[in-house]
Write a structure and sequence with these properties.
The chain contains three helices and 18 strands. The protein has helices at 211-227, 240-247, 251-263, and strands at 7-15, 19-23, 29-33, 47-54, 60-63, 74-83, 86-89, 97-100, 113-120, 127-130, 149-157, 161-166, 170-175, 188-196, 202-205, 231-232, 267-269, 274-276. The strands form four sheets. A five-stranded antiparallel β-sheet has the order 3-2-1-4-5, with no helix packed on it. A five-stranded antiparallel β-sheet has the order 8-7-6-9-10, with no helix packed on it. Strand 7 (86-89) and strand 8 form a beta hairpin. Helix 1 crosses helix 3 (251-263). The protein is elongated, with a radius of gyration of 25 Å. The relative contact order is 0.09.
Length: 279
């Protein structure tokens, strides 16, 4: 079976001066024009991995170029052309991704980049993009739970913080007062699930919870103390920005870690300085 909008490994069954003809070992064939080949195929090649799409004429076409994203992905793409009924976005291959006006959350403008979801139009088997992300996320069958480490794509800024796509499937919220780094739309990074609500809403964090994280934070602080001759210009009254800039952790995580180190009599804590206790 050939999956449109995906990478497929297909058998070469014929070639001429214009193209290769590829097959899925069933009844479907796909044309791979020589102009769609990024580097020459080995003369004895029997199979080739290609990306398959439906061209303007409705014909299945292949390319050896790797697209920026495939069907089922969320991706930050750039608008390269505007049309009366929508826009076209650069997908990194010969064919651009079409985003109809009805699938634009806000009007899209040439030259700007937007996070979109890519899906197949069931009517014509063409790839289509949508910036109405909430239409495509799964809120019914939640596959994550509190404490899980997840892959995030930063989706949009809101009054409360940032919405992020979770594992290419769900959507959740990172709260402003728990963010200690600059986030950009389209950024991909690790995150953790804080809470899952019955209605499918999900709270997220950029830092893991629990004592294991405190242990990691303690090691980071001790390592930095050793590198700086036992003194660190951070303390109880240091700002969250100062803490994050130096240690890449939240003020809350920092205070828990230095509190644990103090109880173990490993450090002395001042308002703006921590000293390692030599044993």
């Amino acid at each position: 079976m050939i999956n449109v909008g995906k990478l497929n490994t297909l058998k070469i069954i014929h070639s001429d001066h214009l193209q290769y003809t590829l097959s899925d070992n069933e009844s479907t064939t796909v044309a791979l024009p020589h102009t769609n080949i990024s580097s020459p195929l080995p003369k004895d090649a029997e199979e080739v991995t290609v990306f398959v799409y439906t061209n303007k004429q409705g014909v299945l076409t292949a390319t050896t170029k790797k697209p920026y994203a495939t069907v089922g992905d969320y991706a930050l793409l750039k608008v390269v052309a505007e049309a009366g009924n929508g826009v076209f976005m650069d997908l990194g291959i010969e064919k651009d991704l079409f985003v109809p006006k009805k699938e634009q959350r806000w009007p899209m403008v040439k030259g700007k980049s937007y996070l979109v979801y890519i899906y197949l139009d069931p009517v014509n088997n063409h790839m289509v993009g949508s910036s109405k992300l909430n239409k495509h996320v799964d809120r019914e069958e939640i596959s994550v739970e509190a404490g899980d480490e997840v892959d995030l794509i930063i989706a949009e800024e809101t009054d409360l913080g940032y919405n992020a796509i979770i594992n290419n499937r769900h959507i959740g919220l990172l709260y402003t007062n728990e963010i200690f780094e600059n986030l950009r739309i389209g950024n991909k990074q690790k995150g953790w699930v804080k809470k899952v609500y019955p209605d499918g809403k999900i709270d997220l964090s950029l830092q893991p919870a629990g004592y294991s994280h405190i242990l990691d934070s303690k090691e980071v602080i001790l390592d930095l103390l050793k590198k700086q001759n036992g003194k660190l210009k951070l303390g109880d009254k240091s700002s969250p920005d100062e803490v994050y800039k130096a240690l890449k952790m939240s003020k809350k995580a920092f205070k828990k870690a230095i509190g644990a180190l103090y109880k173990e009599r490993l450090v002395e804590i001042g308002d703006h300085e921590i000293k390692e206790i030599k044993k």
